[in-house]
Amino acid sequence: MQNNKSIISQRASQISPSLTLSLSAKAASLKKQGLPVVSFTAGEPDFDTPEHIKDAAKLALDKGLTKYTNNSGIAELKQAIIQKFKEENNLDYSADEIIVSCGGKHSLTNIFLATINAGDDVILPSPYWVSYEEQIKLAQGKVVFTHLPELKFSADVIAEKLTAKTKMIVLNSPSNPTGAVITKKELKRLADLAIEKNILILSDEVYEHFVYENDDEHKSRSIASLGEEIKKLTITMNSFSKTYAMTGWRIGYCASEKKIAAAMDALQSHMTSNPTTFAQYGAVAALTMKEKSSAFVNTMIKEFKKRREVMVNRLNECDGVECAMPSGAFYAFPDISNCKLNEKQLNGMKLSELLLEKENVAVVPGIAFGDDNYVRLSYATSMEQIGQGMERIEKFCRGN
Ligand code: GLU
User: Residue 329 belongs to what domain range?
Assistant: First the structure.
């Protein structure tokens, strides 16, 4: 290039590729080469998308529903989402407050681009899911990392980070990667704080169905349902990927007040147009064929609950590993800061490298989520794979 101009924009050069995706791809490629790799990397249910959802998408294709749709989603899907919010989250939204997108990540990007100005502070409780940081940077926001002691969400810790520049607080409950669920008490305190300071809340609820404790304190809750004032400040985001094992379909959605929804609609109209038409019809079936869908979801959650216990208990048997039982999502997030190899302390990055190299087990280093004292293991994989992988991790930790 002339004049030492870089081909790559500053915006793109400050972004790192997603470590969760790149490590999953690496594990898949090693497997393809014949290595017996057990992968605990990407958070992706190993269940197949239910038949009734696939059938609805196939029917849409057969009917020729392959053209553009309304930019922010077909009316049937918006209606089904409105109904879902009403029944499951105690939230009332209208069609012009709903934006259907090409997946959860797309919804998040829409949200940040529609609301964040250059230099706005965005509070990101840490550990956090890998893509928030980069998406906020893309929107030129300033990421304000907010360490949560003992991985527990606390409104007081957030309060300490608020300044005149704070525009938004990111919530993700149940959390990827920790599995922690924000308690009712902390949610209420945060809502009061946001109202007092007039700060937006982004509530990422993609793991809302993946909760394993049934008491009142631990069940998932939408912060927007706590009252009209907080609802106005909240953008509630969700996706079909995890709940209905539809990761590849790329359908996400969010609800917010009209002004924000209109801004996202405009952005989306230039960036992608509508989400894939026949995938939207599949999503309609996921929400409206309730009996079949909830039977599927219940089976999956029951299975994940068993896997969670096996994985976490076995992790806690390993020398130097300490893992809290996650209340939700489908990840174990053990503290490995006391793990050693030949008397040398390991961090998440080193341990992940060694596990892959020596034991053919792929895990994600905690650095992807802002804390390399940890590694993340997804238990959304078969019990057989969990058994094999854990055996190898135990062997590694015994040092033989
Ligand atoms: N959200 C999943 C994960 O954290 C899928 C991969 C990704 O998008 O990061 O593993």
Answer: 10-48+293-399
- Is 21 touching ligand 1 by the criterion CB < 6 Å? yes
pLDDT grade for 213, boundaries at 50, 70 and 90: confident
**pLDDT range class, residue 383, cuts 50, 70, 90:** very high
Residue of 15, 16, 20 to test ligand 1 pocket, by largest number of atoms within 8 Å of CB: 20
Write the pLDDT tens digit of every residue in 138-154: 999 999 999 999 999 99
Determine the distance separating the centroid of ligand 1 and the alpha carbon of 20, expressed in angstroms: 6
CATH number of the domain where residue 271 is located: 3.40.640.10
What's the pLDDT at 1?
Answer: 58
Of 383, 361, 365, 382, nearest to 374 (Cα)?
Answer: 365
Same domain, 105 and 200: yes
Q: Is the pLDDT of residue 217 over 80?
A: no
Ligand 1 atom at minimum distance from 21 CA: 6
Mark out the alpha helices in 33-176 (DSSP H runs).
51-62, 75-89, 104-115, 130-138, 155-161
Closest C-alpha among 26, 38, 3 to residue 355:
38
Shared-domain flag, residues 272 and 303: no
4 lies in some domain: no
Give nearest CA residue, ligand 1 atom 9.
Answer: 20
Ligand 1 binding pocket mutation candidate from 15, 19, 21 (most atoms within 8 A of CB): 21
The DSSP secondary-structure symbol of 328 reads: B
Place 399 in a pLDDT band, splitting at 50, 70 and 90. Answer: confident
How many angstroms from the chain centroid is the CA of residue 266? 24
Tokens of 155: 């409104």
Q: Would you state the pLDDT for residue 342?
A: 79
Judgement on whether residues 277 and 298 belong to the same structural domain of the protein: no
